Every structure is written in C-alpha cells, then in structure tokens.
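Q: I have two molecules that I believe assemble together. Could you output structure tokens for the complex as a whole instead of separate predictions?
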Amino acid sequence: QVQLQESGPGLVKPSETLSLTCTVSGGSISSYYWSWIRQPPGKGLEWIGYIYYSGSTNYNPSLKSRVTISVDTSKNQFSLKLSSVTAADTAVYYCARGELIVATTPALWFDPWGQGTLVTVSS
Amino acid sequence: SYVLTQPPSVSVAPGKTARITCGGNNIGSKSVHWYQQKPGQAPVLVIYYDSDRPSGIPERFSGSNSGNTATLTISRVEAGDEADYYCQVWDSSSDHAVFGGGTKLTVL
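A: Yes, here they are, computed for all two components at once.
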C-alpha cells in the first residue's frame, strides 16, 4: 500500500526558510492531491496546502504568502517551503495523500499520512 | 472562515458507546471526515464522506451528519480507542480544508 515519509532539517533559524520533502512509495504520485498538514506541540491540526500531480496548488489563506509546494513526479516526491519562519511555525509537519470528490459539494480527505517530522524554529 | 467546534473531552466506560460531536454552520451540507490520533502517532482516517469506513476500520466506528452537527459514534468502546479525534471538512467558500479542534476520548 502507499506509504509517505517526510524528510528535512529538524531545526530552522528564525527568518529562514523551512524545507521538507515527502517521498511516496508503493504507488504513483500521479493523481490525488498531495498535502501538507502541521500540528504545533500539544495543539490541533492545521492544513497548509496541496499540490495536484499536474502542478496546480492550493494554499491555506493564512499561510499563502509564505508557502510554496512543488512536485517532482520523476522522483515520486513533493516538497514544502515555508519562508520567514518564527517560533510559531514550530510543529510536527505531516505529508498526506488527499482524495477529492467533486459532487454537489466538494469533499477532500487525507489518507494515508506520513509519520510526521518535528521542525523546531530556534536560534 | 468556516469553524468546526468539538468538545475538548469525552469520557466513556469500556463496552459503552461514545459519541463525539462536530458542530458547524449547516455542516449537514458538507461532507465530514474523522481522524483518530494516538499519542506520538500520525492521524488515521476512520470515517470519510460522513459515514464511510476505510478498509481495516472496525464496524464499531460509524458517522452521521445532519443540520449543524456531525457525530462520530464508537460502539462497544475498547481501551485501545483512547485517542484524540478530529473532524474535517472542505470549505468550498474559501477553498481550503478545515479541522476541528479535536476531542480527547478517555476510556474509564
């Protein structure tokens, strides 16, 4: 079955750019909406955005000015860049596969998820 | 933007039925999805499209959605069901995913 694995630095300095990669195994990255979701320590989940395999993106309006999600279909990977980070960006970052159904009301859910990676913003 | 409201905690005795609610304005017009997250682990999808179960999820887990409230029901609760549960929708007016604040289920 499809598995996702996040990778990247666990420590980022304030004002710098956070960069993470998600590697998809056990299936093709073609189709589906490949997403990033984060969870600050002890808090709830926040959707960051998604990229469709064709390259179209959609970002959370609250993060849109700082977020870039890209895809490399040849490597079965997609990536997250979050610029100008502060301590408030400290969180466990998850990648997940999103499935979108466009019916009378669009529905998008996330399954499966990667194990998550903790990124701490600190000098 | 769209807001989903969950009770912070729900407690239930083993073998009983737990009901976790997710409130939102006319949420019955949206599709609601539910995730289970155990400590130190990634969330796992337990219900999608209001009431569908992914393969491998026990039939004890069920969902409903009407009016301003969606509900995750866990029948014959087991100790292993103790976890945080999150509801989620796609808000088509703002075109982004929204999660509820999460509910901690405690099995007494």
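A: One point stands out. Chain A has a mean pLDDT of 95.
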